[in-house]
Amino acid sequence: EPDASYGGAVWGEVVPQLTGANVAFAVRARVVLLRDLGAPLAPDNAFGIIQGLETVPLRMKQHCSNAQKVVDYLSKNKNVDRVIYPNIHKGEIGDRAKRYFKGGNGGLVGIELKGGVEAGKKFIEALKMFYHVANIGDARSLAIHPATTTHSQLTQEELLAAGVTPGYVRLSIGIEHPDDIIADLDQALSASSKPSLKAVS
Predict the structure, then answer these.
(1) How far apart are the first and last CA of the chain?
(2) 56-192, what's its fold?
(3) Phi, psi of 31 (to 5 degrees)
(4) Of 20, 26, 100, 191, which is most buried, counting CB atoms within 10 Å of its CB?
(5) d(C-alpha 95, C-alpha 12), whole Å
(6) Strand partners, 131
(7) Where in the chain is the domain with CATH 3.90.1150.10?
(8) Pairing state of beta strands 142-144 and 168-172?
(9) Do 87 and 94 form a contact (C-beta atoms < 8 A)?
(10) What is the mean pLDDT, run by run of 10 residues, along the chain of 201 residues?
(11) Does residue 83 contact residue 111 with C-beta atoms inside 8 Å?
(12) CB neighbours of residue 34 within 10 Å
């Protein structure tokens, strides 16, 4: 039967011609299912995942504890307009957080900086310990300014519709010592509020 996802190739005819062997099923499984499902996992990767699963509860406890300390600090910082974290919401969202997040509220923290896009850029550039990457949930602390990276192709209206304000920064709080995390955030927030130096000609 022709495979529409591969230009109408009929695997039972094409594979023997290309390989000299009738391994159509194996080739189709490799080129179609691997592409579409990503099912196969290398043995070393499987081993690493299994080992890592053993310490997930300990790491999550540290993520949640560190994130709460960061939220407490950020809530009092004059350069932060808003902190986004489940347990500081009011109303229905706050009630759900209390009901469902009994073991902690996770490691993701959102902040909106008062200085908008410029403050967001300066904040990211000033971070020393945080890694500037788009992924989340790492043992290391991570930060990203979506308006100038992951969502930079969107218009201002599309950004706001997606919930991305000009000064929004997403933090994924790691398992480092909380004092080190807060010290890095503190110096970066101070840097984000400093006026840019303009060249004098």
Answers:
(1) 71
(2) Aspartate Aminotransferase, domain 1 (3.90.1150)
(3) -85, -25
(4) 191
(5) 58
(6) 142
(7) 56-192
(8) antiparallel
(9) yes
(10) 78 69 74 75 90 94 97 97 93 90 93 95 97 93 95 90 94 98 98 75 55
(11) yes
(12) 12
Q: In angstroms, rounded to a whole number, what is the distance separating the alpha carbons of residues 171 and 188?
A: 13
Q: Which residue has the tokens 């189709």?
A: 28
- Give the full edge-to-edge strand order of the sheet including 168-172: 80-84, 108-113, 168-172, 142-144, 131-132
Judge if pTM exceeds 0.70: yes
Token pair, residue 141, equals: 């602390």
**The length of the chain, given as a count of residues:** 201
Q: How far is CA 174 from CA 93, 110, 147, in A?
A: 24, 14, 23
Residue 108 forms beta bridges with which residues?
Answer: 172
